[in-house]
Amino acid sequence: MTYVITSACVDVKHKACQQECPVDCIYEGDRSMYINPNECVDCGACRLLCEVDAIYYEADLPENERKFLTDNAAFFAEILPGHDKPLGTPGGAIDCGPVGVDTPMVADLPRKGC
């Protein structure tokens, strides 16, 4: 099981969750943050600090947000636009830095705000 970042994070990215994560498993895409399911230790620290309530434990995902479970995993398992290999399990977001792209699903979502 893992925690999942959902649609409420898209175009918001407060990043308080990333700073609180004790295992550094929250990575920054272009429009959203992503939790690496292979690095997450299910502590819930990220969820407590999320200012927009975008983070859910996998088993608690609302039905309309379930697609983000697969999408968070896809961010690490599939080849992202502009990359030549999957991100995989790099071992920490700080060393990896912002990835700069999103999964096709997030990239295709309507923009929030102006």
Quick gist of this model?
With 114 residues, this protein is α+β, with helices and mostly antiparallel strands.
How would you characterize the overall build of this protein?
It is a single chain. The protein has helices at 16-20, 45-49, 67-77, 93-96, 104-107; strands at 3-5, 26-28, 33-35, 55-57. The chain is of the alpha+beta class. 25% of the residues lie in helices and 11% in strands. The strands form 2 sheets. It has a two-stranded antiparallel ribbon with strand order 1-4. A two-stranded antiparallel ribbon has the order 2-3. The protein is globular. A hairpin with a 4-residue loop joins β2 and β3.
Q: What is the H/E order? A: EHEEHEHHH
The residue fraction in helices comes out at: 25-40%
Biggest sheet layout: 2 strands, antiparallel
The stretches of 5 or more residues where confidence is low (pLDDT under 50) are none
The end-to-end span amounts to 36 Å
Counting DSSP H or I runs of 4 or more residues, the number of helices is 5
Label the structural class: alpha+beta
Overall geometry comes to globular
DSSP E strands, number: 4
**DSSP strand (E) fraction?**
5-15%
Rg from Cα? 13 Å
